[in-house]
Each structure stands twice: as structure tokens, then as C-alpha cells.
């Protein structure tokens, strides 16, 4: 079955209060684009064209105004409401009907990925018929994340959520490729002491049966979690530096759709006209000239 995408853009964004008291975190700007453009781009780079976007009921109209139904990028969006944030694994319960047994790739709405070779590792993960694939990223403060432990042969032996003594420096990023059993597995786990359905418990099921792969992202990759004011600013500066120095966009669904053949030249021209004289519109016009 064709793999489908899940984009989790719900939650309260409380770590960013008061900024997010009146607007969803995933609608905030990362330099010249809304935050949600970046995880959408990751799913598109993985070849995924059917995406469920999970939002709060209050924020959904704003997301729909921004993104429409996806046809401008040759994809389709299904809108799913999250009444209350009850853990990352809840996303699989909310999208059970949408997935209809299909394998999935879930990306958290505040995660940004960048690096040479990113499409290749995404397609490799997407091509796995069974089990799950997650991505490990070397960090200096692993105690803030879910962390993977490995044996002498490099196989993952456990994943520990925010350990006081981390078993490694590899944090598990907010990108999960799981097979069609994910909703059924999520339905069997119980809330953690903090009252949430933890994604770590779902991953542990796959690990225990020996079907969880951890792909380590090397030095050439960047992973940014934009959930705090400092990391939000860092991400914007990172994107600005890359774009201004190289003249290439980071996280452009329009350019990705065009280069993958999901929209034609006329479709990209329409998008360039929509964004008019903005720097983003100028970039799309430049893609057409090239």
C-alpha cells in the first residue's frame, strides 16, 4: 500500500507563551515561511502525496486558509481535529480511518530537517515494507529528548524518554516511519504518569519484536526543534543564512512539487504570481527561469 503522511500541528505551544496564546505555533514564521511548510516539505521529499494534518479545532480554519486542499502542490490534505493534546501516539488513533491500514510517516509540526542526501534517506525509510524507522541525531544535551541505546553491533536496544543518565548522545527526532499496524499498537498502550500516550511506547513495541531501525543522521544533516523562543530564533537565522548565501530555498513545497513533477510549469507560474513581489515569489520566478 502507498505510504501516507501525518503532520501533527496541534497542542498548545505553551513553551512559547505568550507568543502562541493567539496563534498556533506551527503558523509562526521561520524566516520567510510559516513553520508548517518545513515538515510538509519533508513528507513531500519522501514521495508522500496524501497527508493528514492534525490541528486544534480553534486553529484549523487558519491552517485551511494558508494551505487549502493541497492541490496547488499536487498533494491532498485531510483535516483532522485534536480536541485535547494527549500525547504523540494519539495521532495514530485520530488518523486510523485516514490511514485505513496503510503505512505512515509522521512528522511533528515544529521539526525542521535539512541536509544533502535527505531525500535518499527518506525514500529508504519509506521503502521499508514492515516495521518502523526512526532517525537518531547526535546532540549535546540528550537528557532533553527520547534517546536511543545501542549494543556493540549498533542495534537499538531501548529508547529512553528524557533520561537523567543518557545511554547515548543520539536523540530520536520527530519523524517516524511505521507500518500499517501503528494505530492498533497505539490503541494498546496506556497513558504515562504525565497522562499522555507516549510515542516511545509505540516504538518500544517495534523494537521488542526486532523490527525497529534507527537511521543515524551524520554531520551533514541539521535537525531543529523550534519549540522554544531561542530555538525559534536559531531556526530562522539558520534558514536565512542558507538561503542568502546559496540562493536556494529551504522548505519550499512549491519548488519540491515542481521538481518532482507533481505540478507543471503553469502551476508553478501561478504560485509565483500568488506570492508576487515577496522574496519567496521572486525565488519561484527564478526557478522558472532556470
From TrEMBL:
CDD domains linked to this entry: G1P_TT_short (cd02538)
GO molecular function, one term: glucose-1-phosphate thymidylyltransferase activity
Ranges of residues in domain Nucleotidyl transferase: 4-239
UniProt EC number: 2.7.7.24
Superkingdom, natural source: Bacteria
Keyword Amino-acid biosynthesis set for record: no
Catalytic activity as recorded in UniProt: dTTP + alpha-D-glucose 1-phosphate + H(+) = dTDP-alpha-D-glucose + diphosphate
Cofactor: Mg(2+)
Function field: Catalyzes the formation of dTDP-glucose, from dTTP and glucose 1-phosphate, as well as its pyrophosphorolysis.
Protein name: Glucose-1-phosphate thymidylyltransferase
The gene coding this protein: rfbA
Amino acid at each position: 500500500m502507498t505510504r501516507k503522511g501525518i503532520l501533527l500541528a496541534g497542542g498548545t505551544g505553551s513553551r512559547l507563551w505568550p507568543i502562541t496564546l493567539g496563534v498556533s505555533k506551527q503558523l509562526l514564521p521561520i524566516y520567510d515561511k510559516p513553520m508548517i511548510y518545513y515538515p510538509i516539505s519533508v513528507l513531500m521529499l519522501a514521495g508522500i502525496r496524501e497527508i493528514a494534518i492534525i490541528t486544534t479545532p480553534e486553529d484549523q480554519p487558519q491552517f485551511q486558509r494558508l494551505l487549502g486542499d493541497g492541490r496547488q502542490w499536487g498533494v491532498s490534505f485531510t483535516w483532522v481535529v485534536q480536541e485535547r493534546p494527549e500525547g504523540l501516539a494519539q495521532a495514530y488513533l485520530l488518523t486510523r480511518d485516514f490511514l485505513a491500514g496503510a503505512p505512515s510517516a509522521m512528522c511533528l509540526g515544529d521539526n525542521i530537517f535539512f541536509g544533502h542526501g535527505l531525500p535518499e534517506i527518506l525514500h529508504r525509510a519509506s521503502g521499508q515494507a514492515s516495521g518502523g524507522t526512526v532517525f537518531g541525531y547526535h546532540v549535546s544535551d540528550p537528557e532533553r529528548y527520547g534517546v536511543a541505546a545501542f549494543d556493540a553491533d549498533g542495534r537499538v536496544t531501548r529508547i529512553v524518554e528524557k533520561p537523567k543518565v543518557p545511554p547515548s548522545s543520539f536523540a530520536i527526532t520527530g519523524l517516524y516511519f511505521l507500518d500499517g499496524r501503528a494505530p492498533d499498537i497505539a490503541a494498546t498502550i496506556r497513558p504515562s504518569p504525565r497522562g499522555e500516550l507516549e510515542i516511545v511506547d509505540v516504538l518500544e513495541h517495534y523494537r521488542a519484536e526486532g523490527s525497529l531501525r534507527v537511521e543515524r543522521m551524520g554531520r551533514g544533516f541539521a535537525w531543529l526543534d523550534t519549540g522554544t523562543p531561542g530555538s525559534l530564533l536559531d531556526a530562522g537565522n539558520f534558514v536565512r543564512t542558507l538561503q542568502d548565501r546559496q540562493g536556494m530555498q529551504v522548505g519550499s513545497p512549491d519548488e519540491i512539487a515542481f521538481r518532482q513533477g507533481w505540478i507543471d510549469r503553469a502551476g508553478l507560474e501561478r504560485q509565483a504570481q500568488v506570492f508576487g513581489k515577496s522574496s519567496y515569489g521572486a525565488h519561484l520566478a527564478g526557478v522558472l527561469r532556470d
